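Suppose a classmate hands you a notebook page containing two proteins, each written out with its sequence and a corresponding row of structure tokens. How would you begin to make sense of it? This section walks through that situation. The first entry is reproduced here exactly as it would appear on such a page.
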Amino acid sequence: MPRVSFSKGKSTMKIFILCEDQAKMGFMDKVFLAEHGLSIFIDASVKILFDLGATDVFLRNAQLFGIDLRETDYLVISHGHWDHVNGLRHFPPSEKAISLVAHPGILTHRFSKLDKYNGVPRDYHTLTAGLSTIFTKEPFQIMEDVFFLGEIPRMNDFESQQTYFTRLENNHRVPDYILDDSALAVNTPEGLVVISGCAHAGICNTIEHAKKVAKTDRVRLVVGGFHLLGDASQLEHTIRYFHEHGVELLCPMHCTDLAALCGLANNLPFKKLCSGDWLELAG
């Protein structure tokens, strides 16, 4: 397994990519799976499963890593889209007291641009009956240096400006800007780690909110979905933002198209991660 160490010293956190749109190439004794979706396991002061993908891919890849998801402390849902939540059907039962953390808007009845239901499983309440649920629009401190960001303010003028999603409100369809979109922020001795699901709020908005919540300006790593899809102007503004604000490493995946991946890779510190990859951050 590849190891990315940012400094010498004792390891403080490991980040495992359990599910992403591409799978890593390499060892034939461990064939990792991919699907459209995202799931990331964080092994730090607590064990956090961040999103669950669309099927059982996250579980099967966790088994290849040797990760027992029954030992999870917190299940964090970034937002209520099927490709991040439908894996709930395959989350293994545990004797531990596991807390689910999410924005209450994940339960929104929502639809894709093709007019298909694309929200959480319809039996969501049954699937989560054994979990202790924490719904919050405000930032929530999971541990001393681990934060769920809550609802992310849309502050700039180049992200989250339009949407092709809809949701039900008073039995009428209205535009859905995915206000439940959130992320994780982890403060490490060498800077902030931001873990994003889809960044419907905008990856730059997400980082700015993370810095405010965690009370730091140094960003060490940004990993997850960046939601850069076919908008050249947004990509240009995003690259400019990263140049101006600085970050040690970008690891975009999932909802980040090829043009965006190439643009980021050609201009900024970059590493492509896929299902089966992992990072170890030393403190």
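The notebook's second entry, a different protein, reads as follows.
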Amino acid sequence: MISIESISQALIQAGGKPVLVGGSVRDRLLGTLSKDFDLEVYQLSIDAVEQALKPLGALHAVGKSFGVLKLRNFDISLPRTENKTGQGHKGFIVQTDSELSFEQAASRRDFSINAMGIDLITGELLDPFGGQADLKQGILRHVSDAFDEDPLRVLRACQFTARFNLQIHAETLIKCRNLNAELSSLPRERIGEEFKKLLSAAKPSLGLQALRETGALCLFPELAALIDCPQDPQWHPEGDVWIHTLMVIDEACKLSDSLTIRLAALCHDLGKPETTRMEDGRWRSKNHESAGALPTRQFLTRLALSEDLIREVIPLVQEHLKPCQLYRVRDQVSSAAIRRLATRVNIENLCLVAKADFLGRTTEDAKLGIDPSSEWLLEQAQTLAVHQKGPEPILLGRHLLEIGFQAGPTLGRVLKKAYEAQLDGAFSTLDEALTWYKNSKESLSK
């Protein structure tokens, strides 16, 4: 079995000095488990490292030209220096040097909490920039002026703030703000990866606030528009849409670790800046849920997210008021209405988003954690077995062809009417569906 011990032993026998570096060191100090590990190897060439590790398994040269090999979930690299040659995230010349000191190699890293190492020969913690103390004090501090060379580090600062409940050091905050002009040079894919890490935190609101403090919120105008967008204090005593959204995303994270749920919670009120008006002395945002579809798509596209994911999120935004609306008239809500809703959106997910929306405010009911509407709708949908998706059509084209129906445009129209009838509860089995068709054949042909 490949382990840190087996890898380090092979490297030591070859004359190398392996050091565990990066996030796995930070995670050890926090008492959390790491899935991936980074090792830096001193006093060996990349070819010597490759020869030493070959007996352990297949090596992948993910970046052999700048001294990086991959063995399962271990990245093994040589110490290196990086020199800025142009603008943006990629304008660097990388040079490996196995004779560098650990401090020299670590000086290229972004934050002190990521610039620690564990000497795998002695077990000593190597911490030339005070990362352990910063971690204990909850401070996110840059390592050196090399921080200024990579604008991606601004987004990394924001996601680390959220994931580890850190406060950005005042000098680091200034450096982040000074990099704002270069943020637009970042690839959408890299922006999306950092944002997903931010949303993986227990309290993404901390990272979103950091985006605002650093100025990086300029990358996301759909979110920035929520700031100072007013709300009716009767329903939202907590403040503007930005404050409400921060509360909602944190509530969503208590309910689910699904990226779909978290994105929908974040985007649920993106339609409010466009629709909010003062009417009869009160702030109203009529149809903001449907108006939210466009800014949600624009925002998620900025993150280079998949079309499948975007199509999951948008209906949750468009329908997020539905649990509350249906609950108010629950005595009049038919099974057909719930079945139809299930054809548009995953009701189970919708109830989670709606619950987060309800709890993400400072009303008395929210403080008590009381949200009967989402629980009621979910129970109704579960009873009808449509809580995760709409009912599958019972009557299919092949069934009609088997009884002599001719293929053509009329077939599609009949099947559409049959599905509508199924949603209305006209039939629930194939035999019933065929009987319905025979009884309705004359009217369907019109």
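A careful reader of the second entry would note: The chain has a mean pLDDT of 94.
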